[in-house]
Structure formats: C-alpha cells, structure tokens
Amino acid sequence: MINNMDYCEQEVSYHCRKSRLLNTPGGTPLTWWIGRTNERQTYWGGSSPGVQKCACGLEESCLDAKYHCNCDADRDEWYCDILRQ
User: The organism sits in which domain of life (predicted)?
Assistant: First the structure.
C-alpha cells in the first residue's frame, strides 16, 4: 500500500530513561529503523540519512552537548527523541 501512495508520514517516539538511542557521536548506533527500501537507517528525530543525529543534535539543543540525541545522555530522568518521516 505504501508504494502506491504519493505521500506517507509517520512518527515514532523513543522515550528513554538510562537507555541510549544512537550511542555517542561517531560511535556504533545502538538502534535503527528499516526504511521503505529495506535499508537500515541510523538517523532520528528530523535528521537526514547518514547524519547519525537527532533533530536536537542538528539544532545544537540536546540535553547534553556531548551527545547528538537527548536519550544518549543516559540520564536517570525520562526524556524523548522523536522520528518524523
């Protein structure tokens, strides 16, 4: 059905507490999603293919500036990174 559509959009939220999403800048990603061409994607939250950052990493607004996703800060509080495709 998706292949017959002109436009498709989805949103995935990753809510985290002491649970990393992509790991560290330049490190091996801990999570990924599979795109419509069956390829592994390691970008999240409004970023672009191959960048391995969340939107907050692109906007330099992540919870901890050492990481490119809020969840990668590995904090004991609940946070979220969102994927919109």
Answer: Eukaryota
pLDDT tens digits for range 2-34: 567 677 777 778 899 988 888 766 678 888 888
Cβ proximity of 40 and 52 under 8 Å? no
Phi, psi dihedrals of residue 8, rounded to the nearest 5°: -145, 140
CA angle 65, 12, 52 (to 5 degrees): 40
pTM of the model as a whole: 0.73
DSSP letters spanning 14-26:
EEESS--SS-STT
For 30-70, write each residue's pLDDT tens digit: 888 888 789 888 877 677 777 888 888 888 999 999 888 89
Q: DSSP code of 25?
A: T
d(CA 36, CA 34): 7
